[in-house]
Design brief:
The chain is α+β, with helices and mostly antiparallel strands. It folds into 2 domains: about 5-130, PAS domain (Beta-Lactamase, 2-Layer Sandwich), CATH 3.30.450; about 140-210. The protein is built from 7 helices and 5 strands; from the N terminus they run αββαααβββααα. Strand 4 and strand 5 form a beta hairpin. It is rod-shaped. The termini are far apart.
């Protein structure tokens, strides 16, 4: 019996590749251009989406049915684009996909041509899909905070200025030499109204910061 000295190292490399593929927080897949079915799906799909890898194999209707309806046209267009890419080109796009628990998760996918036929046409697409839900939520929260800051700036520049200017003007009209002046009663009444208006604006600003 001839001993193949290269067999063990190759086996070790294959096992190492399998361990890396199935233990990184990225879904790796190979998709058939002809059927749009998955010919390979890493087991990380169970951790990230709750499905087994076997549920995707050669089941294009299953995988296509998981995309959010609003994102499906864009996903379909990007898959078509991936099929037409040159070697070493990378197509990056994001979308929502349904988890087994019914919630939608945001994913970013990077695709490239993995295999071509004798005519140079793509036959298989290699993809790497990463969950970016937390990133999307963080960006949306930043946008919300920026909108709040813009509103606060608007309120500061317009709504606070009006009651504050009224108060300063009324203070200047107050007869300090003769506090008993009947005109002061009218000034104090208007001061009270302006102070109340300023207090309402301040409370609205504070409310918008949460």
């Amino acid at each position: 019996m001839i001993k193949n000295e290269n067999l063990l190292p190759l086996q070790d490399k294959y096992e190492l590749l399998e361990k890396i593929t199935n233990n990184i927080s990225v879904i790796i897949y190979i998709m058939s251009v002809e059927t749009l079915g998955m010919e390979y799906m890493s087991r990380e799909v169970r951790n990230l989406l709750g499905y087994s890898d076997q549920e995707f194999i050669n089941q294009p209707n299953f995988s296509m049915g998981l995309y959010h309806t609003e994102d499906f046209p864009d996903v379909a267009a990007n898959i078509k684009h991936s099929m037409a890419m040159r070697d070493n080109e990378l197509n990056i796009f994001s979308y929502r996909i349904r988890h087994r628990n019914g919630n939608y998760r945001w994913f970013e996918t990077k695709e490239m041509v993995f295999e071509r036929d004798n005519y140079g046409s793509a036959t298989k697409i290699l993809g790497f899909a990463q969950d970016i839900t937390d990133k999307v939520h963080f960006i949306n929260e930043l946008k919300r905070k920026n909108e709040q800051l813009a509103e606060i700036a608007r309120v500061n520049s317009h709504e606070i200025r009006r009651p504050l200017a009224n108060i300063l003007g009324l203070v200047a009209l107050f007869n300090q030499e003769d506090p008993a002046d009947s005109f002061n009663i009218e000034v104090l009444a208007k001061l009270k109204l302006s102070a109340r208006e300023l207090d309402e604006v301040i409370h609205r600003i504070v409310g918008n910061t949460y």
